[in-house]
C-alpha cells in the first residue's frame, strides 16, 4: 500500500524488485527444453488449479524424474476457485 503513489504515477517504470514481486498464475502447460552435456531436459510449468490438473497426466510418458515445487508461504492460503477451502499444497 505504501508504494501505490509511486506505482500509479503516469511515468511509472517497474524496478527490478517490482518485477520480482510480480506473480502471474500459470494456465495450461508451459514447456522449456534445454540440453546439458548432450542430455535433453524438459521442464513443465503446470497450472495448479483444479481445472488444470487433469492436463498433467499427458506429461508423464517417458518421465525419469519429477520435481514438485510448492511455495512454503501458501500453506494457509485459500483455493482460487473456492475461497472457503484451504489449499492442500
TrEMBL record:
Mg(2+) binds at residue 26. The keyword Membrane does not apply. GO terms for biological process: adenylate cyclase-modulating G protein-coupled receptor signaling pathway. Keywords: GTP-binding, Lipoprotein, Magnesium, Metal-binding, Myristate, Nucleotide-binding, Palmitate, Transducer. Pfam families: G-alpha. InterPro entries: Gprotein_alpha_su, GproteinA_insert, P-loop_NTPase. GTP binds at residues 20-26, 45-49. One of its GO terms (cellular component) is cytoplasm. GO terms for molecular function: G protein-coupled receptor binding; G-protein beta/gamma-subunit complex binding; GTP binding; GTPase activity; metal ion binding. It comes from the Eukaryota. This is G-protein alpha subunit. It comes from Toxocara canis (Canine roundworm).
Amino acid at each position: 500500500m505504501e508504494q501505490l503513489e509511486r506505482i500509479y504515477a503516469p511515468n511509472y517504470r517497474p524496478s527490478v524488485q517490482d518485477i520480482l514481486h510480480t506473480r502471474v498464475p500459470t494456465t495450461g502447460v508451459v514447456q522449456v527444453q534445454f540440453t546439458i552435456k548432450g542430455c535433453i531436459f524438459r521442464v513443465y510449468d503446470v497450472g495448479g488449479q483444479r481445472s488444470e490438473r487433469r492436463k498433467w497426466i499427458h506429461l508423464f510418458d517417458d518421465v525419469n524424474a519429477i520435481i514438485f515445487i510448492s511455495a512454503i508461504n501458501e500453506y494457509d492460503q485459500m483455493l482460487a476457485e473456492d475461497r472457503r477451502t484451504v489449499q492442500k499444497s
